[in-house]
Amino acid sequence: MQLSKPLDNFPVIRTSDPAAVIDALARVYAAPTLQLGAGGAALNARMNECRLPNVMLAYGSYGGDVMLDFPAVDCFVHLLVLSGNAEITYRSQSKSLTAANSVSISPDAGYRARYSADYEGLLLKIDARALANKLTALTGANVEQPLRVSLQPNGTLSAQILRRYLPVLARILTDAVQPLPARWVAQTEQLLMLLFLHASRHAYSHLLEQDAPDAAPWQVRRAESYIEANCQQAIMLDDLAKVTGVSAFSLFRAFRKSRGCSPLQFASQLRAKRNRQR
User: Residue 255's domain spans which residues?
Assistant: First the structure.
């Protein structure tokens, strides 16, 4: 049976009580202050949340005009409107949101959100430390200054893919049989962090865009040995980067040139071969 709203199989609340909304948001994200629109319009709030180890995807609607002030938290946020509209204020910047755009928010400050009565939207939350580790693995650089992203996504293909992928992912999760496969969860998290980093403007964007030198042959061989020893588990490029001491981008390109496939494809082929031999 098709559920009526995204992530309805991960319910958090169905309520008209403002205090319950605040309590639910405190559990999902952070405890805000809440103001109702003119005339104290009634709420009809609905929230759903699917939480993975380092990433969370949530759906929300309020059924009335509301303004929420959130404190700073240790995670990055990407907000996407499905219907209605919103206005996001972060530091001194404000951005109007419709279904045609989205915003990203850093952990260094809180933000204010105004939602229309017909608003429905998705919120992607990514753990700040996990995202910094992902950036290091991708580029090989030490993330010395805190990672901060621009409120406005950079308009690249990655930003468009992220905006289109989140509703698709929500539908997949809505229809998924529980529990979710561990390998799929790990790879989905990696994809979301990769898209977020490429879709956002930040001080390390140039490292993601530049061509890094290829990994050395011995590093490709070391990656291959690691995959052969661990192919029945989820293989992450981040793990291969740590094992080989080279950025994930460099290793990916060199591995494909040397082996004719990506590291993850190699792991999948090896896994399938061993399963056939059983």
Answer: 217-277
